[in-house]
Write a structure and sequence with these properties.
The structure is a single chain. With 123 residues, the chain is of the alpha/beta class. The protein has a single domain, classed as 2,3-Dihydroxybiphenyl 1,2-Dioxygenase, domain 1 (Roll). It has three helices and seven strands; from the N terminus they run E-H-E-H-E-E-E-H-E-E. A four-stranded mixed sheet has the order 1-4-3-2, with helices on one face. Strands 5-7-6 form a three-stranded mixed sheet, with no helix packed on it. 15% of the residues are buried.
């Protein structure tokens, strides 16, 4: 019974801040929002589509941001994304080099760590 793929990644968020999640992940990063199933929608949070995978933001009562654990998003034109994030008040943080990639980290509005990376050979 092999594992086939990853369906979604979930990050925690504080209650009542779904509009901030939509502004950051939807408006700023351009991820389409997905409708949550009715039985899960009452829990709060928001779901987004990231390529072929989903990013779920779930409300956690005793919320603490993920400072080390993080999703990594493959992007096209990392330099443009950096400029876009800075222009909108988010400061990218560089880290140790990763062979074959350019990358940086940024925190979402809740303090969760996100990685953005682009392969060096863009063919």
């Amino acid at each position: 019974m092999p594992i086939l793929d990853i369906d979604h990644v979930q990050l925690a968020m504080p209650a009542g801040r779904e509009d901030e999640a939509r502004r950051f992940y939807g408006d700023l990063l351009g991820l389409p929002e997905l409708a949550k199933p009715a039985n899960l929608a009452r829990r709060g949070g928001a779901w987004f589509l990231a390529g072929a995978r989903q990013l779920h933001l779930g409300v956690e009562a005793d919320f603490r941001p993920a400072k080390k654990a993080h999703p990594a998003f493959l992007v096209r034109d990392l330099a443009e994304l950096r400029r876009h994030l800075i222009a909108n008040g988010h400061t990218p943080q560089d880290d140790e080099p990763l062979a074959g990639y350019q990358r940086f980290y940024v925190s979402d509005p809740f303090g969760n760590r996100l990685e953005f990376l682009e392969p060096n050979n863009k063919s």
